[in-house]
Specification:
676 residues, alpha+beta, eight-stranded parallel sheet, 30 strands, 21% strand, globular
Length: 676
């Protein structure tokens, strides 16, 4: 029996591991190789830009059923409607600049299509086609000329004086499942909330312990019991969230470490793992984590754990026992191999063996024994907790075979048992789309965090630099860039200053890549007054919740919490005494969550820009069920926005009836229009 090949579409939790509690990876954008990692933060510091445990309680089954003929576990299954068969399209290379396959194979097939690659002889692309479904297609040459396939005699009239080529519907022995539809959950429907556990809610004061460093960088009491309490209160359901991303669960060192800023830090962020098979004592017991996952599932929430595989703390037993499993801290030229010092953050061979600090030994996953140990540990955490996905940290800093082995083991050991897709999303902190895209593939990751989109939104919507036309142009090329990957879109995370400060009338920083470290300890920014900054941040969330991908809410951003660079961007969660602006933003995100859940086009539809100008932008989202129109105005005055077809529409954000054509949009706001 042939094994099922899963589609990379399902979200995967790689990670935004830069300055955050992840074992961060280097940012590839502004300062290339010189960005130092700050061990105190559990992440990387950008200087000129934002730059299995042993289970003693009942848990998920750890055995797999096997096929009586082959002895292999059965593959995850999906309905015929979700099955896809790979088809190779080919077009002779005659010197074209670009060739795309456009067609009826997906909702965005006629608008976005699939880019083809050339080997100098032929342009080719492998496209998953719907099961037993006829597909019509054309080739788009250099972005504007459309022609039928000269190598396919089968065609039908396209209604415009030409022909569409035809691939007749068929089946296949090795199929994939569309868009993460393995089992009952479609990861395109995911809305992720990043719970920074230590800073979220203290549910058990019995596990509170201090390291003795400055309070901003010490443990502050948040734990798994606290997260469970908020789950049971219904906090996440009210937000429209259906997926929780939790910080690293493994036991960390009790040592303190000095950061590049001269301050000492504890391991509150979770990125200095020591005992890889034990839970972090500050967060609770394994039973507490299992109870959290059970509560989440009872409330229709998926759980993703941050998994830090790149390195361990120097006090880790595995380092003492198996130093040969780790790269030596030696660059071969008489110096160390600390990232950004003796070795490069970015040059591939060095980036995969450099140490983030001299006390974080870097795993050598070219060593098969080391790789097996790490993957075994990751699988054990899944089996012991029943989680639904991983956010994988510092992806570009590890050897590719780790990801290949991890994906294969997830299929054989996890998905064959659960019959659900296990989502894995990665973090590569960079503005380089090609670097991010490399890992978005069926045998690696389901998706990555979309840093390039975040930075362009922060620049145009929050900082009001350039025009909304710039954003429209970027989104037009970004929409299909990662193919069928389920990317996670975001405006804030733990590696960059709180987004609210970029949205102020007078922004605290004028660079969307800033790390905000200049104000992390002294002269920390406070909560903005008024409502304008909260409205701009809300406008960014409107874009996230009305486009494809798995939108992320970084804890506290739903109320516009203030904070500079790490650790100030990780203040303890604010649970009360909201200002008018905060209360307005919180309600807006709750509304967006409900609207996104109600309209499939917002989660899966093809996006098309309808108009754009200096301050405004309009686009449509269309799938087989509906068309939704989104109209945005970042300006400080009301504006009329064109592009929406004539007709009467209901604004889902307020309930008002609106006529198409030129649509009036208040300052710093949006309309989400549907046919009543």
């Amino acid at each position: 029996m042939s094994r099922l090949r899963l589609f990379v579409l399902l979200p995967s939790l790689l990670a935004a591991c830069a300055d955050a509690p992840l074992m961060s990876e280097s940012t590839d954008t502004a300062p290339p190789d010189t960005t130092p990692y700050d061990p105190s933060q559990g992440g990387m510091v950008a200087t000129a830009y934002a730059t299995g445990g042993e289970s003693d309680t009942d848990g998920p089954p750890t055995t797999t059923d096997t096929d009586p003929t082959t002895g292999e576990p059965p593959p995850p299954m999906c309905d015929d409607a979700s099955k896809r068969c790979d088809h190779l399209f080919s077009f002779p290379d005659n010197g074209e600049t670009s060739v795309d396959v456009m067609g009826s194979f997906s909702a965005e097939g006629w608008t976005v299509g699939v880019p083809m690659t050339s080997d100098g002889v032929n342009w080719t692309a492998t496209v998953p086609l719907p099961w037993e479904t006829q597909v019509l297609y054309k080739f788009r040459i250099d972005g504007d000329m459309w022609i039928p396939d000269p190598g396919n005699p089968n065609g039908v009239d396209d209604g415009f004086g030409s022909m569409n080529s035809v691939v007749e519907g068929g089946t296949c022995e090795e199929f994939s499942c569309d868009a993460g539809v393995v089992g009952t959950f479609d990861w395109r429907d995911s809305v992720i909330y990043f719970v920074f556990v230590d800073r979220f809610f203290n549910g058990d004061k019995g596990n509170d312990k201090l390291t003795g460093v400055e309070s901003a960088a010490d443990w502050q009491g948040g734990d798994w019991a606290g997260v469970t309490a908020k789950i049971e209160e219904g906090y996440f359901n009210e937000l429209g969230v259906n997926t929780l991303w939790l910080t690293v669960p493994m036991d960390n060192t009790s040592d303190q470490g000095i950061g590049t800023d001269g301050h000492f830090y504890s391991a509150y962020h979770g990125y200095w793992p020591t005992n890889l098979d034990q839970p972090e004592e500050h967060f609770g017991t394994l039973a507490d984590l299992q109870a959290l996952v059970t509560a989440a599932h009872d409330h229709d929430l998926k759980v993703i754990l941050d998994y830090a595989m790149n390195h361990v703390h120097s006090s880790a037993p595995v380092y003492a026992e198996h130093k040969d499993w780790f790269w030596p801290n030696d660059n071969g030229n008489g110096g160390n191999c600390v990232c950004g010092q003796g070795c490069s953050w970015d040059e591939a061979s060095e980036a995969r063996r450099c140490w983030f600090t001299d006390y974080l030994p870097d795993f050598n996953f070219e060593n098969a024994a080391a790789r097996k140990f790490s993957v075994d540990n990751a699988i054990k955490w899944i089996q012991d907790t029943g989680i639904d996905g991983f956010r994988l940290d510092a992806v570009k800093h590890i050897a590719d075979p780790w990801l290949f082995d991890m994906r294969a083991r997830v299929k054989s050991d996890i998905e064959s048992v659960t019959q659900e897709h296990f989502y894995m999303v990665g973090e590569t902190f960079t503005g380089k789309q090609d670097v991010i895209k490399y890992y978005v593939r069926p045998d690696m990751l389901d998706g990555q965090f979309d840093f390039p989109l975040r930075m362009e939104m922060a620049r145009t919507v929050l900082l009001r630099q350039g025009s909304m036309g710039d954003l429209a142009g970027f989104m037009d090329q970004n929409d299909g860039y990662y193919g069928n990957g389920v990317m996670s879109t975001f405006i804030g995370n733990h590696d960059i200053p709180r987004a609210i400060h970029l949205a102020e009338d007078q922004p605290v920083w004028d660079n969307q890549w800033t790390d905000g470290k200049d104000l992390a300890w002294n002269n920390k920014p406070g909560l903005p007054g008024g409502t304008s900054a909260f409205e701009r941040l809300g406008l960014s969330f409107t874009i996230l919740f009305t486009t494809k991908g798995a939108p992320l809410v970084y804890y506290g951003d739903e109320v516009g919490m203030p904070g500079a660079g790490d650790p100030d961007n990780r203040r303890f969660m604010q649970w009360a005494n909201y200002s008018a602006g905060q209360a307005q933003l919180l309600q807006h995100i709750k509304d967006l969550g409900a609207i996104r859940a109600a309209h499939s086009a917002l989660r899966r539809g093809a996006r098309k820009t309808l108009s754009s100008a200096q301050e405004t932008m309009a686009y449509e989202l269309k799938d087989a069920n509906e068309t939704v129109y989104v109209v945005l105005n970042r300006g400080d005055a009301a504006a009329s926005v064109g592009g929406v077809p004539a007709g009467s529409y209901k604004d889902e954000l307020g309930g008002a009836m609106v006529e198409g054509g030129m649509v009036d949009v208040p300052a710093r706001s949006a309309r989400i229009l549907v046919k009543p």
